[in-house]
Amino acid sequence: MNEDNNQFEPKQNQTERIISLEGACNVRDLGGYQTKEGREIQWGHFYRGDGQHKLTEHDQELLLGRGIHTVIDLRHAQEVIVAKDAFADSDNVAYHNVDLLNPTTTNQPQVNSLGDLYVSMLDNSQDAFLRIFEILANPSDEAVLFHCTAGKDRTGMVAALLLELASVPHTTIIEDYAMTAECLLPIMDELRAGRPEGMPADLYERFLGCDPSNMEMMLQHLHAAYGGTERYLAAIGLSEEKVQILKQKLLEE
């Protein structure tokens, strides 16, 4: 993997990007990351998160105060029914539910690692990725929050593609992915309790992890098979105009 010599982000910047909420533990601003060309991802435009169904009124006001008026819920229908997004019926938010990983509606094969899953998602969830990136490319200045249940896999894929589009080094993208492990500590027991029937405990434990090699595998496949995010988005049908809108929203002038 071709990389420059960018170092990992200082700890204080990592802390700054975490949004402190009562009802969610893994909501983070993607701003502040440096690109290979020395530019910076804009703060306050794109937020990644875990489930938003437990948000308090104060949490919702805080997120709205950050300019978040578009929410993309990446969970499948059953997840949405069981744990309804706090913004689903909000008059202040454009709420979109885009099912990114539902085994009943996608062609995802059985996988034995998260890296395999991420590669499969790139190849087999392209219609969903297209819809997600069309929403992200809204030309307005409103901020967007995209989330799933843990804010790790589906959310991590979208975040990685956004950062890669802006030419953020792969080392930084992988670090952003791995940061989720610490953020999820408060709800890890709850996540463990959700182990699907029939799935071995050791396999499920690996699936709850954030091993950097999983994201590295996805990024390697992204470049080997598609030539990077920009070409991937073009291949799945996103217009050049919307790609440029995304870049403008991502990058500081």
Percent of residues in β-strands: 5-15%
Oligomeric form: single chain
| Percent range of helical residues | 40-55%
| Gyration radius, rounded | 17 Å
The name of the CATH topology is: Protein-Tyrosine Phosphatase, Chain A
The gross shape turns out to be globular
Order of helices and strands: HEEHEHEHHEHHHHHHHH
**What's the CATH H-level homologous superfamily?**
Protein tyrosine phosphatase superfamily
The CA-CA distance between the termini, in Å, is 28 Å
Arithmetic mean pLDDT: 91
CATH architecture: Alpha-Beta Complex
Care to count the β-strands? 5
Main sheet summary: 5 strands, mixed
**CATH top-level class:** Alpha Beta
Question: Could you say how many structural domains there are in total?
Answer: 1
- The low-pLDDT segments are 1-8
Q: Enumerate how many helices there are, as a single number.
A: 13
Structural class: alpha/beta
Strands in their spatial order, largest beta sheet: 1-2-5-3-4
Organism: Paenibacillus alvei TS-15
Pfam family, one: Y_phosphatase3
Family: Belongs to the protein-tyrosine phosphatase family.
Domain Tyrosine specific protein phosphatases: 127-196
Protein described:
By secondary structure, the chain is an alpha/beta fold. Helix content is 46%, strand content 8%. Helix 3 (77-82) links the parallel strand 3 and strand 4. Helix 4 packs parallel to helix 11 (212-226). The longest helix has 15 residues, at 212-226. The two termini are 28 Å apart. Mean pLDDT is 91; it is low at 1-8.
